[in-house]
Amino acid sequence: MASVDDGLYEQQLPNIRSTILSSSKKLCRPSTLTSKFPILLWLRTYQVSFLFRDAIAGFTVGLTTIPQAIAYGVVAGLQPQYGLYAAFMGCFTYIVFGSCKDVTIATTAIMALMVHDYAIITPDYAVLISFLTGCTILVLGILNLGVLVRFISMPVITGFTMAAAFTIGSAQINNLFGMKSPSNQFIASWNYFFTHLTNVRLNDSLLGVGSLVFLLLMKKVKDIPYGNKIFWKYISLSRNALVVIFGTLLAYQLSRDGYEPFRLTGNITAGLPPFRAPPFSTIVDGEKVYFKDMISTIGSSLASIPLVSILEIVAIAKAFSKGKIVDASQEMIALGMCNIMGSFVSAMPVTGSFTRTAVNNASGVKTPLGGAVTGAMVLMALAFLTQTFYYIPKATLASVIIAAMISLVELERLVDIWKSKRMDLFPFAVTFVTCLFWSLEYGIICGVIVNISFILYRSARPQIYLEKRKVYNFDICFVEVKQRLDFASAEYLKERVVKFMSGNRYDISLIVIKGDEINSIDYTVAMNIISLKEDLEMLSCDLICWQWNICAAGVVCRLNGDLCCLFKNDQSIEELVNNYYLNLQRKNEASIESVCTNGT
């Protein structure tokens, strides 16, 4: 029989010294440097043949990025050029720090919507949020806390994405028909639309709806079975640029003598943004607002915006990793640096863009160097094309945004959830409804809370199977625990066993708890095991813990060395029961003999 003194149940503590030494050695390895600067890894094997593929991919992504950047700048409540400011620095920075060749960094519709309420106060808020978001993500990445995103399940992400798509698309419905909406909220946008139908402009409506239909049809062009498939693919990928060019040319041709047939984007500040530190104070309505007050205004978004940014880039990197392991922490470092560097050129927060990443992948990009071409195209657009952007119709930009949002509404994902596990529709529904009718920040928090509640409930109610089993004509209570035990489930195990025994106290005198699936327990569980043994003794019943892990059994044994005899691992259940009742019989016989002797 094992005891505490023989060392079997000795507690194994981590060797801090060896851990520090191994970590220090790891920091000095060349592989650590290449893992933090992936450019050092792929640049050594770069081939001249890759250059053409990267250039083509970068150019194609640029055709998608420029119109979307202008549109998302408007979604954020900023001047269109701010969308372009956010579209180039991330491309260059990700080349150095990014580990996934397909990922394209730029502002997205969700990021634009989340920053909108602060950007409309002054653009300085958007730039400061970009800097603080970058710092937060960078620190989390350096500390290898990419694991945190695992606490957000796919149903929650789906609910958040779909709610954001509905909100963003609804906010553009008025622009699609030539009206100016006073709100970006879901209900307010549709309420304004239906109560101001008389303000619908015919020209804008025809252009907007026609552009939207064109974009949706062009998305299917790549599937044409005849002709040159590569030609059809690139025509499909260039659909955003084509519709913006057509709308701009049409507006320019029809604009005469001050007459504008459509609501136009208007003046865009020409030239490149100055390279300067992000603003830590600003002026609002003639009054100076200090950093502390700006932070107070931003509030919970300081946590929700970095969280959503991380979710987007990690999800995108995994989707396009093609079997490779994605280093979530390194992607966080890359994204953090992109946001920090972007804040020095007046950019709003950025993250991975699924649409542009898909275009990048479909274009055959070979390395992250393709981002340099995309970034260069945005810079040239800022330097030379800002006067042309004046004539971009707002209805055209609205159609680009709505078409992108339609692709985010993945109804087939809901079908999959329904088929696999219908209970997962509950966190989806909670997230979707709260994001849609409350706010994106609090919506995703509510979804995470629901998910964690599920986890805690399962932890507090582990799978425990109790049955009355007959072994060698002896009735025993056989308890099988199918998952690990912790403090949340300790009392539950005790309640189930005692309740079962209360109804069978005269039939059973032995309870066997099988614990081969219990890897470890904590102090609370150990105390409840000891308490359970005492309660069972009051019911004239004995307890045996069979096939328990040494680590789990050691927690109980170190508390009370006399209880080492509870744990039996070297016998079958038949041998265990047989030996128990033989010993019990001997004890009873010895007790009878003792009574007879004393009576004599």
UniProtKB/TrEMBL annotation:
What InterPro entries would the database entry show?
SLC26A/SulP_dom (IPR011547), SLC26A/SulP_fam (IPR001902), STAS_dom (IPR002645), STAS_dom_sf (IPR036513)
Q: Which domain of life is it from?
A: Eukaryota
State the annotated membrane topology for this chain.
Answer: Multi-pass membrane protein
* GO biological process terms, semicolon-separated: transmembrane transport
Q: Where in the cell is it found?
A: Membrane
The STAS domain sits at: 475-537
Name under which the protein is recorded: Sodium-independent sulfate anion transporter
Q: Which organism is it from?
A: Ceratitis capitata (Mediterranean fruit fly)
Taxonomy, top ranks, is: Eukaryota, Metazoa, Ecdysozoa, Arthropoda, Hexapoda
